Amino acid sequence: MNNRKPMLDVLQGREPAHIPVWLMRQAGRYLPEYRSLRATAGSFLTMALTPALATEITLQPLHRFDLDAAILFADILLVPMALGSNLEFREGEGPVLQTTTTNNIDNLKYDPEKVGSVFEAIRRVKAALPAPKTLIGFCGAPWTVACYMIDGNSKNNFAVAKSWVKEQPQLLQQLIEVLIDASENYLSSQIEAGAEVLQIFDSWAGLIAGDDFHSYVIAPTRELVSRIKRKYPHIPLIGFPREANESDYAAYIRETGVDAMSIDHGLDLQFAKRDLQIIKPLQGNLDPALLVQGGIAMTDQLNVIFSTFGKKHIANLGHGVVPQTPPDHVAQMVEHIHRFGI
Ligand code: CP3
């Protein structure tokens, strides 16, 4: 037996004592205690940038459920904010970011003081976290963050960002390089503060494919991963190129240098087992709608996932927990996973 952390066991290639589980967006609006804190704090940004609040919210789901990891309560758009872009979260509308144009890329300068509270929250969570639990830090991948910086919001499916791929490749590359530098800095500070695993969220990776995917998803991720690995070889990284096509998922896991890959719920499990899991462990991919449904529909699909991947796997969703999820179903999911294979 080992007394190690199940998350780290899987990420370092060992069989875990039980299948580790955490959920993207495990802290958030489906929890009544989150909604009541949000009502008093006023805004999402106030919560994310106040260490006492961010610490409390990060730990809220771990107080309720036997999750194997905490993910820092923050947002991928804090990096553009630290680069000087104005960021707002509007009620009912989601994030709105000042758009980056041809003229203002040169003005982007990463100021670590703007996100100093994030690193303080990591220190506090780490101090409070029980030994078997793993603390996950994260950032957005350069491509996904560039999408928000170019379009300002997701209303038009990042039409302007996609047009830059074909019409402004040099400008896009310049922005991507700014984001690689800033993300390296931001992730390094998270590690110094106590993050034990990092996840790189490329939520909009599926907007591009083939050569474009290679240029703007794989190459920048590989560069970011290799810079972090050079400085912190012991820190595992998980990549999530959401909604990529099968051959792009396969290229991503082979070429980026990540230690594990998160997969969305659209991906075929037999393909994932045959072409992806033989290379590195996977994370995912229960449909968040099945977590809303709960019961046998959910546990049946979890059984399918685990009989496909076995124990060297990280249980998670194919995307984030949605606000209408009943918390009891999260408890049911976590218990079911921890019972599996014992
Ligand atoms: O996973 C966690 O529990 C940790 C915290 C976390 C948040 N955002 C908190 C959040 C993480 C890891 C993220 C990542 C993030 N943020 C991504 C990548 C993952 C994904 O969902 O694809 C993206 C694209 C963003 C940008 C973002 N932030 C959007 C599009 C939105 C609005 C949509 C929504 O769900 O409201 C946010 C707001 C946000 N980030 C909330 C939370 C808990 C909701 C804030 C609220 O209204 O209370």
Question: How would you characterize the overall build of this protein?
Answer:
The chain has a 6-stranded parallel sheet. Strands 2-3 form a two-stranded antiparallel ribbon. The protein is globular, with a radius of gyration of 19 Å. It has helices spanning 6-11, 32-41, 44-49, 51-64, 78-82, 116-128, 142-151, 159-167, 169-193, 210-231, 246-255, 269-277, 288-293, 295-309, 327-339; strands at 69-71, 87-90, 94-97, 134-140, 197-202, 237-241, 260-262, 282-283. Helices cover 51% and strands 10% of the residues. The protein is α/β, with parallel strands linked by helices and 342 residues long. The model has no long low-confidence stretch (mean pLDDT 96). It has a single domain (6-339), classed as TIM Barrel (Alpha-Beta Barrel), CATH 3.20.20. Helix 12 links the parallel strand 7 and strand 8. The chain contains 15 helices and 8 strands. Residues 24-29, 38, 44, 71, 73-77, 89, 94-95, 138, 201, 203, 320 line the site of coproporphyrinogen III (CP3). Coproporphyrinogen III is lined by residues 24-29, 38, 44, 71, 73-77, 89, 94-95, 138, 201, 203, 320.
